[in-house]
Each structure stands twice: as structure tokens, then as C-alpha cells.
UniProtKB/TrEMBL annotation:
GO cellular component, one term: mitochondrion
Entry keywords, A to Z: Hydrolase, Magnesium, Manganese, Metal-binding, Protein phosphatase
Protein name: Protein phosphatase
Encoding gene (name): PPTC7
Domain of life per record: Eukaryota
Length: 276
């Protein structure tokens, strides 16, 4: 069952991704630091999707499903086929398009989408699985996504399985995504990442790195995003480190210690005052 496989952490190489860009969204600007970043005149959209690695046992590249899911979301947003206040709708339409492909694209993926509506200054989110986001204000986490797990190391996921595996592979509905809406303020930091970050760095470590972010220029955001991703990567390969993943495993009766090698994607954004 792809969704329930606990992989040998040293069996596959891992990758680091972080992205920094500067975009202006009057009257707020989001100065932003990967899977996909999407830009609209009225909204700012970003999303991460993480393919379930257990599909490698079936000869399937897990990145194909997650990458196609995000590229489809990107196209829908660029075409204006979405409502900023309903990010689950973007996820639903994208997933339905994948289901309707003549040649099935097998795989599973978690997904996290955040949309800033510049007209209302509100952030709308949808999270399915164990990727997620943090909103940091004044050095504290004021909002965060809730991780969704069927059981240990088996996150909620969108899936397309071959006929013989239907009913065996976990396949959740996009409507199962946890949704939230809240106001943003100037200076808010929005971090979106895959579980490769959260499994290796607890909140207090992330906050320590964010304190190094002294201003909202492109270079500072890029440097901070890179630093967070690099530190998570190093911790992932520390056999003596009691990572959040190892602690969760112990809580579930498993004798585990060390980090969790995994692909790590970090997106970092700051809500800033618009300037010409």
C-alpha cells in the first residue's frame, strides 16, 4: 500500500528546494521566498505538493503526480478559473482533470495551497495531508495548518491507482482538506513547506531562523529560506537527533531516533507595505 510504506531513510537521495521572488500586490506587497508560485493582479497564490514515496515500489516516479497536480493548479489560476476565498476548489478542479486523463497518471500526493486576497487582506488556505504552513507574527506562530494522518506516517492524500489497487490505496477527497481563513497584518511571515521541513525542525528552531530575517528585501528572504532548508537537511541525516518525526514514531510505539531524510521544500513570504 503506497500510503503506508515506511521507507528506508537512506535508500533514496533527497533534494532541497527554496524560492525567493519579489512581487507587488497593492496595497500590500508579499515579498516571497517551491513547488509552485502563482501570480495574479488581485491575489497571490502558492502551493506545495509532495508525492508519496511508496509508489516507487510499483515502478512509479512519485514526483510526476505531485508536479502535474501543481502545474494544473498553476494553469487554472492563470486562466482565472478559481475563487480566491475557496482554494479547495482549485485543488478539486485540478484533481478532477487528472482523473479524466485518457492515460491515467498513477500516484498520490499531499497538497497545501495558500491564497492571499489583496482586496480583503485575508489569507485563505487548504491543506490535505502533512505538508503545511505557518504564519508568524511578532516572533510567535499565530496560525498553522493541522496535519492530517490516517495513522503514523500515512497522510491524507489525493490518489490515482490502477484498477487492481482501487480500494487498497488510500484516496482522500479534496473536500477533506482542512480549510481556514484569517486576516493578515503588515510584517506577517508566511512559511509554506513540505513535511521534510516539519519532520526535522520543530517550531522553535524555525522561529530561531526567522529571527535572523532583519528586513524584507529579496536577498534577506532568500538567505533565510535557504538557511532553513539547509538546516532541516542536515538534521535529517543526524542519527542521534531526536527529530519531530522520531518523537512522533516513539509516541506510536516505535523505537526510532534520528532525522528523516526527505525532499524539503520551503516557501517564505513577508506581508509588506506597497511601495513603487
Amino acid at each position: 500500500m503506497p500510503g503506508s510504506v515506511v521507507r528506508d531513510p537512506n535508500e533514496y537521495p533527497t533534494s532541497l528546494y527554496y524560492l525567493s521572488t519579489f512581487i507587488q500586490l497593492p496595497p500590500f506587497a508579499l515579498r516571497n521566498s517551491k513547488d509552485q508560485l502563482l501570480f495574479l493582479s488581485l491575489s497571490f497564490f502558492k502551493g506545495v505538493a509532495d508525492g508519496v514515496g511508496g509508489w516507487r515500489d510499483y515502478g512509479v516516479d512519485p514526483s510526476q503526480f505531485s508536479g502535474t497536480l501543481m502545474r494544473t493548479c498553476e494553469r487554472l489560476v492563470k486562466e482565472g478559473r478559481f475563487v480566491p476565498s475557496h482554494p479547495v476548489g482549485i485543488l478539486t478542479t485540478s484533481y478532477c482533470e487528472l482523473l479524466q486523463n485518457k492515460v491515467p497518471l498513477l500516484g498520490s500526493s499531499t497538497a497545501c495551497i495558500v491564497v492571499l486576497d489583496r482586496t480583503s487582506h485575508r489569507l485563505h488556505t487548504a491543506n490535505l495531508g502533512d505538508s503545511g504552513f505557518l504564519v508568524v507574527r511578532g516572533g510567535r506562530v499565530v496560525h498553522r495548518s493541522d496535519e492530517q494522518q490516517h495513522y503514523f506516517n500515512t497522510p491524507f492524500q489525493l490518489s490515482i491507482a490502477p484498477p487492481e489497487a482501487e480500494g487498497v490505496v488510500f484516496s482522500d477527497s479534496p473536500d477533506a482538506a482542512d480549510s481556514s481563513t484569517f486576516d493578515v497584518q503588515l510584517g506577517d511571515i508566511i512559511l509554506t513547506a513540505t513535511d521534510g521541513l516539519f519532520d526535522n525542525m520543530p517550531d522553535y528552531m524555525i522561529l530561531q531562523e526567522l529571527k535572523k530575517l532583519k528586513n524584507s528585501n529579496y536577498e534577506s528572504i532568500q538567505q533565510t529560506a535557504s538557511s532553513i532548508a539547509q538546516q532541516a537537511h542536515e538534521l535529517a541525516y543526524d542519527p542521534n537527533y531526536m527529530s519531530p518525526f522520531a518523537q512522533f514514531a516513539c509516541d506510536n510505539g516505535l523505537n526510532v531516533r534520528g532525522g528523516k531524510p526527505d525532499d524539503i521544500t520551503v516557501l517564505l513570504s513577508i506581508v509588506a507595505e506597497y511601495t513603487d
